[in-house]
Design goal:
2 domains; Rossmann fold; 236 residues; 8 strands; six-stranded parallel β-sheet; alpha/beta; 48% helix
Length: 236
């Protein structure tokens, strides 16, 4: 639970702090079509997450031509950005998020973001809707993005906080997997459709309907223990 030993909260970005509604289905289709155009069968990449599929294709091409591999990778990143950009240009924080983050900062907590989004995409949102975040780690900053714990560990390193003094908060199973692997407490929000039961199965310490409700729970006097769930918890 949140206690005097908690020093930092690290958040996912899209779907946790901001409503961006990025069309990941479109992004996946375009990435797989591009991969096929490079002569790589999409079946081997279809079961991977999008960024992992791109990394797999780059590694496969690098075995015969490092130059072609890097050209492929640049093109793939451009395709991903073309899909992301219009959604980032329209994204806004969820209601109550700026105020909740301000209260967390006033309580002395350090705040960070880790995201599989690009730095440019995050900057497009925060330029219009500033949030009191001290450390942002995007996909360009790490060799392994979440759910790999390296992503979260780098954010904690930049915040100067140990994993056992931090929470990882997000809306997707990868956030909980990442937090548990890195050694933090984990909080899940139900803003983008993942069922509470899935988060329970993954071992989330706290599950709430929204990020402001989760922060209210963590910051309230008489804070709940890890097994507690707020009254506002959405159904599975």
């Amino acid at each position: 639970m949140f206690s005097a030993s908690t020093e930092a909260l690290v958040f996912d970005f899209d779907g946790t702090l901001v409503a961006s509604h990025i069309d990941f289905g479109l992004m996946r289709r375009r990435v797989l079509e591009h991969l096929q155009a490079w002569g790589l069968g999409p079946d081997a990449a279809a079961s991977r997450l999008i960024l992992e599929a791109v990394a797999w294709a780059r590694d496969a091409l690098a075995r015969t031509s490092p130059e072609q591999a890097e050209q492929y990778y640049r093109e793939a990143q451009q395709i991903i950005w073309e899909v992301e950009r219009p959604f980032c240009e329209a994204a806004v924080p969820y209601p109550g998020v700026p105020e909740s983050l301000a209260r967390a900062r006033a309580a002395g907590l350090r705040l960070g973001i880790i995201t599989r989004n690009s730095r440019a995409g995050v900057d497009l949102v925060l330029a219009r809707h500033p949030l009191p975040i001290e450390a942002i780690v995007t996909r360009e900053d790490v060799a392994e993005v979440k759910p790999h714990p390296q992503h979260l560990r780098l954010a904690l390193e930049r915040l100067g906080v140990a994993p056992d003094a931090a929470w990882m908060i997000g809306d997707h199973p990868t956030d909980i997997i990442c937090g548990r692997a890195a050694g933090t407490k984990t909080g899940a929000v139900l803003t983008t459709g993942t069922a509470a039961e899935e988060f329970r199965r993954l071992g989330a310490d706290l599950i709430c309907a929204t990020t402001p409700e989760l922060l209210a729970c963590l910051l309230a006097p008489g804070r709940p223990g890890p097994a507690a769930q707020p009254a506002s918890l959405a159904p599975s």
